[in-house]
Amino acid sequence: MTAPTKKLKVATTSLAGCFGCHMSFLDIDERLFTLLEHIEFDRSPLTDIKTCSPDCDLGIIEGGLCNAENVHVLREFRKNCKILIAIGACAINGGLPAQRNHLPLTAILEEVYHTSPGLANGMIPNDQELPLPLDKVHPIHEVVKVDYFIPGCPPSGDAIWKVLTDLLAGREPKLGHRLMHYD
Amino acid sequence: MSQTFTLDGDSIPFADGQTILQAATAAGAFIPHLCYHPEFKPHGSCKLCTVKVNGRQTASCTMRATSGMTVESNTEEINAGRRSLVQMLFVEGNHFCPACEQSGNCQLQATAYYLGMMSPHFDHFFPSRALDASHPEVLLDFNRCILCSLCVRASRDVDGKNVFALSGRGIRTRLIVNAASGRLADTDFSPTDKAAEVCPVGVFLKKRRGFAVPIGERRYDKTPISGVPEEA
Predict the structure, then answer these.
(1) For A83-131, what is each residue's pLDDT tens digit?
(2) At what angle do helices B76-92 and B107-114 cross, to 10 degrees?
(3) Shortest distance, CA B113 to any CA of chain A (angstroms)
(4) Angle at B208 between CA A111 and CA B34, to 5 degrees
(5) Nearest-CA distance from A108 to chain B in Å?
(6) Residues of chain B with CATH 3.10.20.740
(7) N or C: which end of chain B has fewer CB within 10 A?
(8) What residues does CATH 3.30.70.20 cover in chain B?
(9) Fold for domain B3-74?
(10) Cβ of B46: how many Cβ atoms within 10 Å?
């Protein structure tokens, strides 16, 4: 790879995820220095920038959609990023949070805040600052167009590196045996 | 064995009565499949083994080989169709690999890897399916069932018990347990039954034994499904 004249702007976020995919991203270790010759981070937990610039080249989304804010952030990313990548099982099929999908939301809130043992005077949080939960957890491709997917829980640093370097080189990303994992 | 057909340009010998899939497997060629198992009569339902014979699509597990036929299997067009079939299987059930004891040993997952399935593509159904934990030794997790009917055939044809059946039609088809209560504990099912070991996914889970082999060191973690010999 030869360094481009203009660095690509990359935004990242974790929606209904555990930040495990971001940790795995950092697992590319010293290759981050090589990456930073080609990209600069925009909105991301790594920069603490709160909104996307309108000219982001790449948006990397970890986690699925479990509340209204997740949908809002996802739409902001789609609007401002030329290419959107879903990273990890939760963004791709809802993952662990989607295990609640066969239960009615009211029953979950009741159990968590009212009827679990050890709760006294429990109440379901209802502050207007809190985003409302969705009825079901959804993968992100059900709401916006997603250009590329990196499966895994989390995908390995090597898998993330492979997809990013393929994209930077203008190749269609491809994961072979061992890099391709759903677990 | 002087008769042959061509599979993706290679000459494949076959004996009278052999299907395309049987002859290909015997010759060491891989055709993706989920509902086919060498010990059982073909079911022809998953359609993963679809090939083109002289330009027309057919299931290679049910089509007998004939001399001189031209079979295409490993082409971008056919694999794209197979990928769509696997994606539909993923969204129709609840297949959450990171939390599944069968991950790494699962033929559905390994076939999806082989076909390069990067996403489910379709909207998820997230169906609500109850577990059957009634049996003291084996748990049934219907969330993962792909309706291949291998447990149905194994229980009926090998175990001689007829414990399982596919009930309903179309998208409402589901695996049921043949007891008045519908519970596995109320049948003569035994954990040593053939039916308990043929599941290509993770419906049958032996209780009190989990993750004996770590994730990452399992059958299809080590070798792609195309390189794992058929169990017979």
Answers:
(1) 999 999 999 999 999 999 999 999 999 999 998 888 888 889 999 999 9
(2) 140
(3) 6
(4) 90
(5) 15
(6) 3-74
(7) C
(8) 82-208
(9) Ubiquitin-like (UB roll) (3.10.20)
(10) 25
Across the interface, which of A93, A102, A174 has its CB nearest the CB of B120?
A93
User: Which one-letter DSSP state was computed for residue A8?
Assistant: E
In chain B (232 residues long), the average pLDDT of successive 10-residue segments reads 91 96 96 96 95 97 97 98 98 95 96 97 96 97 97 97 96 95 97 96 94 93 92 56
For residue B180, report the phi and psi dihedrals to the nearest 5 degrees.
-60, -35
Q: Distance between CA atoms of B108 and B110, rounded to whole angstroms?
A: 6
For A80, phi then psi, to 5°, come to: -105, -5
Contact B128 A102 (CB under 8 A): yes
| Dist CA A70 CA A102 (whole Å) | 20
Q: In CATH, what is the architecture of B82-208?
A: 2-Layer Sandwich (3.30)
Q: What is the CA radius of gyration of chain B?
A: 18
Smallest CA–CA distance from B113 into chain A, residue: A180
Coil, strand or helix: which one is B218? Answer: coil
Q: What is the pTM of this model?
A: 0.95
B41 CA: distance to closest CA in chain A (Å): 31
